[in-house]
């Protein structure tokens, strides 16, 4: 009798165990399927730029020097790259350190205008940077970009200091002459400044960072204190003599005899 009871209990226990196993299997099956489905999803990719040739320290970088590739996020993580790498090729880009063909190029390998260390990298030996503040109206001859060559002319008067005076007392004494020609623009910085002290109105002021010699720097410092300066994109040193003009070219001055300027103070670069 006891053996029959034990047998019945054993059958019941086995049945309960088999039922529990079937329920567990049914419950875990969808989870397993979801995990497998997740594993089949394609891995995210990141856009990077690859050097098509060796790029040496200080050399400019063009769009044609690089090619776009997409790599897996796992590969990108090895280089510390999280998002797509993007460059503004409208700006001048210089190589901060040597880059070999096939290397991934990241933003910390290049320098652009405005970044720390850019001027030291781009400036020529024996030259110094000089900040020339001008209004937008003073930039004549169209847009000036970083890397352009400009000419600087001075507008002066023998009877007053035009750098300080807001009005001209005697228009007959005005003259314009080239001051410096073929000057390289290293950087352009634009910012908003108040029109006058405690004024809410602002104006856009442009600072040209110019590459000059010590001699040219001295001329600019003096010119800023006695004359107005006009800057325009250069069309060549051979045309700088055309920047000469005086009041008699615009208005008729009684008894005034026009004299062609000779040996004007100016500097030319070949």
TrEMBL record:
Pfam families: RcpC. CDD domains: SAF_CpaB_FlgA_like (cd11614). InterPro entries: Pilus_assmbl_Flp-typ_CpaB (IPR017592), RcpC_dom (IPR031571). Residues 118-230 form the Flp pilus assembly protein RcpC/CpaB domain. This is Flp pilus assembly protein CpaB family. It comes from Aliivibrio fischeri (strain ATCC 700601 / ES114) (Vibrio fischeri). The gene is flp1.
């Amino acid at each position: 009798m006891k053996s029959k009871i034990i047998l019945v209990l054993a059958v019941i226990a086995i049945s309960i165990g088999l039922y529990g196993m079937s329920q567990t299997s049914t419950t875990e099956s969808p989870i397993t399927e979801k995990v497998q489905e997740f594993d089949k999803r394609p891995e995210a990719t990141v856009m990077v730029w690859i050097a098509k040739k060796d790029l040496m320290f200080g050399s400019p970088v063009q769009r044609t020097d690089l090619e776009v590739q997409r790599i897996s996020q796992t590969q990108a993580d090895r280089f510390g790259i999280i998002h797509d790498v993007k460059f503004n090729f409208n700006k001048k880009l210089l190589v901060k350190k040597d880059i070999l063909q096939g290397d991934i190029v990241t933003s910390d390998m290049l320098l652009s205008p405005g970044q720390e260390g850019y001027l030291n990298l781009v400036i020529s030996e024996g030259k110094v940077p000089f900040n020339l503040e001008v209004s937008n109206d003073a930039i004549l001859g169209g847009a000036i970009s970083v890397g352009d060559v400009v000419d600087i002319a001075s507008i002066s008067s023998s009877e007053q200091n035009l750098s300080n005076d807001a009005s001209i007392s005697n228009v007959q004494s005005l003259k314009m002459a080239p001051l410096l020609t073929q000057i390289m623009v290293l950087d352009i910085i634009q910012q908003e400044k108040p029109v006058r002290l405690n004024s809410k109105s602002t104006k856009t002021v442009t600072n040209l960072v110019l590459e000059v010699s010590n001699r040219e720097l001295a001329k600019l410092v003096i010119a800023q204190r006695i004359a107005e300066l006009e800057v325009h994109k250069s069309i060549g040193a051979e045309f700088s003599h055309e920047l000469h003009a005086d009041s008699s070219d615009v208005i008729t001055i009684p008894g005034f005899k026009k004299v062609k300027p000779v040996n004007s103070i100016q500097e030319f670069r070949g």
